[in-house]
Amino acid sequence: MDAVRMPYLNRTLLLLLFLLLFLLLGQIRTAEARKHGQRVRRWTGTEETQKHGASLPKKPPDVTKSRKTKTEHLLKVDDHDFTMRPAFGGPPIPVGVDVQVESLDSISEVDMDFTMTLYLRHYWKDERLSFSSSTNKSMTFDGRLVKKIWVPDVFFVHSKRSFIHDTTTDNIMLRVFPDGHVLYSLRVTVTAACNMDFSRFPLDSQTCSLELESYAYTDEDLMLYWKSGDESLSTDDRISLSQFLIQKFHTTSRLAFYSSTGWYNRLYINFTLRRHIFFFLLQTYFPATLMVMLSWVSFWIDRRAVPARVSLGITTVLTMSTIITGVNASMPRVSYIKAVDIYLWVSFVFVFLSVLEYAAVNYLSTVQDRRERKMRERARSQSLPCTCSISQTQTMTMMDGTYSEADTNSLAGYTEEPMVPEDEPEEKQKAPEKSEHMVVHLSMSSESAGIKKRKSLRALNIIQNTHAIDKYSRMIFPGSYIFFNLIYWSVYC
Fold first, then answer.
1. CA-CA distance, 188 to 104, in Å (whole number)?
2. With CB atoms counted within 10 Å of each terminal CB, which end of the chain scores lower, N or C?
């Protein structure tokens, strides 16, 4: 029985296998038929529209679906070693440079630097990048290809900070021509040092320079030069600064020597700046001049008004100190004298001398009052008038011990001699303690002695007479300050 059943099971399995194969083939044919039917319908629809007379324009070929040649294969990037410069081992490769200055952002006197944004372009020829082109058109790439080929290693000498702009992508452009010429452009902001001379500040002009140089290749491997001479540098006409007037831009080039590596080609972007003076006239010179003029007001104030004259002098001195401190706070700590320092310190000296002038006036007034007090006390104690032997007689009557200032000044240096009043009776002469009047006779012994003493007393009166000191100060101080200003502005302007 088992032998009979085995052939029957084998036949059944074979039959099921054939059925499965038949069904699979049927599904495959059905799928092919559906595809074929869709193609037929599309073709039929086109024929039907053409039969009705509506002509449809032909669609351009889909370039994205066509097979393209890779850029690396077109430029043969993988076939060469771009770690070496073009024509390695041969003559130096010339690299032309031109610059377009986009903006001059800031000038810092404290840090002695400037910030500039520019477009830096390099031109050279690399035959390894040449390619065949029927239209002789160049190809433009972004910064991704720059990492795979050789580019000049130009850097900024004496730069403090610099960066390539990367918004929204790296601002780098690479353009390759069929014959192998390359244009490499990038947008850079650089902050470089500028050695400034402030000896004429703020009436100064500054010359700064941005220096470009190859870092690794000497002049035997790379020749850096300005591509179009002076025309290689272009600037935007809208460039302006708040404190400076840009006078001119120009280019120069020279060789730089390093003892350990050799000679290098160096390019210079030079620009000259002249400082605007109007800001400093308003903020520094005019306030200082007004403070000096304000200190002269004390010459017209009565010498006995001590609080008024002292407070005015101290106020002007402190204001001048504040102006000097504010100017030096915005400047570097240089070891030489600036032009503004000369003006401010001379103005400070004038203000300080006006305070000293009142100190001298006040001191001489005190000495004079003390001398007058002693004379009153001596006259009261002696109860006798005094005679000063002078040829010309001048009589002054002083009531109750008071007398004029000019007369008291003229009493200095004279010898006192007791005298008897001429018009008084003998009774009153014998009782001097009851006299209420004092008569002073001034006389000179000879005419020649009077002339000499008058000249010496004139100089003495100028010192002792406080009104004379203020009077002469009203002329000497303004005249000297005007003379100083004439010399100052003629030298520095």
1. 12
2. N
Angle, CA 201 vertex, CA 198 and CA 204 arms, to 5°: 90
Crossing angle for the helix pair 306-329 and 339-382, to the nearest 10 degrees: 160
Question: Is the distance from CB of 335 to CB of 380 less than 8 angstroms?
Answer: no
Asked whether residue 265 carries a pLDDT value surpassing 60, the answer given is yes
* CA 394 to chain CA mean position, Å: 72
Straight-line distance from the first to the last Cα atom of the chain, in angstroms, rounded to the nearest whole number: 134
Beta bridge partners of 124: 182
**Which pair of structure tokens corresponds to residue 442?**
């001034």
Mean pLDDT of all residues belonging to the chain: 79
Residue type, 54: A
3-state secondary structure 258-283: ECCCEEEEEEEEEEEEEECCHHHHHH
Return the top range by mean pLDDT from 104-113, 129-138, 183-192. 183-192
Give the β-pairing of 113-125 and 181-193. Answer: antiparallel
**Rounded to whole angstroms, how far apart are CA atoms 396 and 410?**
12
CA 195 to chain centre: 12
Tokens describing residue 33: 């038929």
Please give the Cα distance from 186 to 182 (Å, whole number): 13
CA 59, 65, 71, 74 torsion: positive or negative? negative
* CA pair distance 141, 77, nearest whole angstrom: 14
Question: How much is the average pLDDT of 371-376?
Answer: 87
pLDDT tens digits, one per residue of 440-490: 343 444 455 556 556 665 555 544 555 688 889 999 999 999 999 999 999
| Gap between the Cα atoms of 56 and 58, Å rounded | 6
Please give the pLDDT value at position 410: 43
Give the E-state strand segments of 299-377 in sequence order.
Answer: none
Q: Specify whether the CB–CB gap between 234 and 180 falls below 8 A.
A: no
Describe the chain by its helix, strand, coil percentages, rounded to 5.
Answer: 45, 25, 30
